[in-house]
Automatic annotation (TrEMBL):
Membrane-crossing segments per the record: none
Organism: Actinomadura viridis
PANTHER family tied to this protein: SLL1072 PROTEIN, SLR1083 PROTEIN
Ranges where the Putative restriction endonuclease domain occurs: 28-198
Tree of life domain: Bacteria
Name of this chain's protein: Uma2 family endonuclease
Single GO term (MF): endonuclease activity
UniProt cross-references to Pfam families, sorted A to Z: Uma2
Keywords from the named record: Endonuclease, Hydrolase, Nuclease
Length: 206
């Protein structure tokens, strides 16, 4: 919302405007913005802003990152597990909570100092839902279609409230995601791709 301030009826209103031009924007514009403690994504030339995750959200992401990293290493899988991480889906620069990238592609991206990892090299992307936030619909709807169009094989959507639930989606031959597992705290999620992995969602809050 634009702020309008007036000092008296006889004076012209002063309008607070941003220091950058009205879009559409580029990656350079995105990078030029000051660090204000928010997470920004570039979508079809427009910048979207979401608050930085809560401490519970951040803790769950870190627990899952460590568990995935250990499982990938145990399986001998050449994969890079990290988050949050910028990925280029074509129409957007997204910042998922966790990303699993092909190891060789990740090393090549770092060698050329790439701005973001290419979605075609991503094996798994994970979003943790922030309930009642502007990003909730994006995670549940927009990104389901966008990540599928980008060809990302696996998309996990995690709810932490009222109890942790992990819904694992796999990209089908029809180009759509299909839920292959939906596991609530107290049960165990078991998957074989992109590497063997199991976890009780309750651990995310432990």
């Amino acid at each position: 919302m634009t702020d309008v301030a007036t000092t008296s009826p006889a004076r012209t209103p002063m309008i607070a405007v941003p220091d950058w031009p009205y879009g559409p924007y580029t990656i350079d514009d995105l990078d030029a913005l000051p660090d204000e403690g928010v997470r920004r994504e570039l979508v079809n030339g427009w910048i979207t802003v979401a608050p930085w995750p809560s401490t519970v959200h951040d803790h769950a992401a870190k627990v899952l990152e460590r568990a995935l990293d250990r499982a990938a290493e145990a399986a001998g899988a050449d994969l890079y597990v990290k988050g949050p991480l910028d990925i280029d889906t074509g129409p957007a620069i997204r910042v998922p909570d966790l990303v699993v990238v092909d190891g060789g592609a990740a090393r090549a991206a770092r060698a050329r100092n790439a701005r973001a990892y290419d979605a075609m090299d991503v094996q798994l992307v994970i979003e943790i839902v922030s309930p009642r936030s502007g990003s909730e619909r994006t995670d549940r709807v927009d990104k389901v279609f966008e990540y599928a169009r980008a060809g990302i094989p696996h998309y996990w959507l995690i709810d932490l409230e009222p109890v942790p639930v992990v819904a694992a989606r796999t990209l089908g031959a029809d180009g759509r995601y299909h839920v292959t597992a939906s596991v609530t705290a107290g049960s165990t999620l078991k998957v074989d791709d992109p590497f063997p992995f199991s976890i009780d969602p309750a651990r995310l809050l432990g």
